[in-house]
Amino acid sequence: MVTRTCIATGQTLPTNSLIRFVASPDGVAVADLAEKLPGRGAWVMADATSISKADSKGHFKRALGVGLANDPEDIGHIVSMLRSRVLSLVAMARRSGVAFAGAGKLLVDGSFDALLAAQDASERECRKLENKLGVSWVSQSLTAEELGHIFGRDSIAYVGLRGAAARGGAALIGNLHDEIMRLDGFYGATGCQN
Which segments within the chain are labelled E, that is strand? Predict the structure, then answer.
């Protein structure tokens, strides 16, 4: 995995734990979540504290020549963009035949690579599914309503992800895991997340 050094903490971390920032034409530092914007990039740990520290201590100015426009507003916008990216990837997984919904269906279908559990899902049930399905990671970053919306229902508590179910499924699950890791940096670990 590719690693970069956080300008706020000095730690060398994998890129799925960091957010890349670039200088925009408007003269402010902006998050480059897709890591494709042109220009020199500066990497910051994916959490509000590190981003605020990078701005207040002048790390963005030293690395990029510009700072954030409005620290709290920018951080809120970053969290919103990360959440949208995660939801889009889950929706893509559903359309690709990689995501399956419902605890009962998951138990009948067998093993899965990953499990998405709603934030308010039963921790006991989450552990049970994690063990029975043999998943390598679990996330409780999304709400039951968000998961349900993707599947055309009011709410869903559990979604299983299986990479072998579709061509490119493993890469899609890997990308989703990376985006969830970044999002979790802002919320901290909850429930039965690994």
Answer: 3-5, 12-14, 18-23, 29-31, 41-45, 99-101, 114-117, 137-139, 158-161
